[in-house]
Each structure stands twice: as C-alpha cells, then as structure tokens.
Amino acid sequence: MTDATEDIPEVDHVSGTGIPLRGNDIDTDQVIPARFMKVVTFDGLGEFAFFDQRFDDEDNPKDHPMNEERFRDASVMVVNSNFGCGSSREHAPQALMRWGIDALIGESFAEIFAGNCLALGIPTVTADHETIDALQRWVDDNPDGEIEIDVASETITYGSNEISVTVDDGQRKALVDGIWDTTAEPVGELPVNRDNRPSQFPVRLPWTTRTLSLP
After folding, report:
1. What is the pLDDT of residue 44?
2. Whole-model pTM?
C-alpha cells in the first residue's frame, strides 16, 4: 500500500513577486464576502477575493492593489496585523490561493486562518511591524522584484536584503516534511503553486484581476 503522504509536496521554499495589502484586522468577510460562499466547489472563488474592497455596487473597479496591473502576477501577499480574523471560513485562503497567492508574510495571523492556509500548503510567515512596513514599501517600489521565502531556515530575501522571520514550529515541520495535516492524516493532493494547480482552476486574464475558468 502506498503511503499517501508521498503525494504531498514539500514546501521549503516559495518565491514570487509581492503585493502589499495594508491594514490591521482584515477579516475573512473582507477576504471573501459571505454571499460568494454558496458554492458546491471552490472553483472560480478567486474571482471574488476582496470583491467589496475592489469593486463598487455597480462592479466598477476601486483603487485597490489587486486591481493594479503591476501586481496582477503577484504570488506573495504582504499584510499587517491580525490578518484573517473573524469567522473561520476555509473559503478565505481558498479564494486567495485561486487568485494566485502562494504565501503570506505579515505581522500576525488569526490562528484558524493560518491553519486553513496550512491545509493548502500556503505558509503564513511573520515578522515585526518595521520589517513588514519596509517590505511593503519595497514591493510598492519594485512590483517586479522577487521575494524568496526559505521556510526551513525562516528567512526572506528581497533585493539586497535577507531578513529573519518566524514560521510557527508546527507549520514549518508540516510544510518542510510534506505532511500538512499535523495530526499525521494526509490531506490529499492539494496544489501549492501554479505548476501544480489542476486545469480547472481559474486563470487570470492578462489585463485584469478577473478570472476565467478553464474547461
């Protein structure tokens, strides 16, 4: 009998361009409004990530980082304190992943949100306010700049900077060992990055943050 954990990818490094999302206490209702959660599957959920922050009542785009073309290929979201608070909806990290986010760096994360991210192989890396503020400003100035996250060694590298960060001990072990379910029960074949995402996941059109589901 094959060990199911062999099919779970190890997540020891994540890299990609960044997107800054400023503000403390951003809750899961902002990440994915409740009216978009009445779905049978998570397919296409990325289209509605931060919908009420990104669009007005007539679906006209607002001023929001996720609506900016320079951040359309970003995969590392840089946030502030207590991100993902509020209700424990698993749709929140699902929506972010399907928009294209592979990792989050922030001052702090709500515990249940971080656990739901772990179940998708998405690291939630923490650092102090000064470090996050500097990284957000750098991302603003360098939207095409690569951010490298070393989960195992708890460091991030961007530009000429290498910064020590924190990854929860249990999360780090689960990601690096490829056992995302810390109770040792495999969670199945879950995608970690764009290369591993199945074809039915939505892809973003080249000039907008709207998504298109592939057949």
Report:
1. 77
2. 0.79
pLDDT at 37: 67
Pairing of strands 76-78, 13-20: parallel
Cα pseudo-dihedral 70, 75, 78, 84, rounded to 10:
120
- pLDDT by residue (tens digit) across 57-80? 999 999 999 999 999 999 999 999
Tokens of residue 26, six digits: 């951003």
Q: Is 212 exposed, middle or buried (0-12, 13-18, 19+ CB in 10 A)?
A: exposed
Residue 175 CB partners (closer than 8 Å, separation 6+)? 10, 11, 12, 118, 121, 123, 151, 167
Q: For every residue of 131-156, which 3-state class applies, written as one string? A: HHHHHHHHHHHCCCCEEEEECCCCEE
Classify 203 as helix, strand or coil: strand
pLDDT score at 7: 55
Domains of the chain: 4-194 (3.20.19.10)
Give pLDDT < 70 ranges for the chain: 1-8, 37-41, 180-215
CB 126 within 8 A of CB 102: no
Q: Calculate ∠ Cα 55-66-93, nearest 5°.
A: 100
Alpha-helix residue ranges (DSSP H) falling in the chain = 28-31, 51-54, 91-99, 111-118, 129-141, 169-177
Please give the Cα distance from 117 to 18 (Å, whole number). Answer: 18
Rounded Cα distance, 197 and 122, in Å:
13
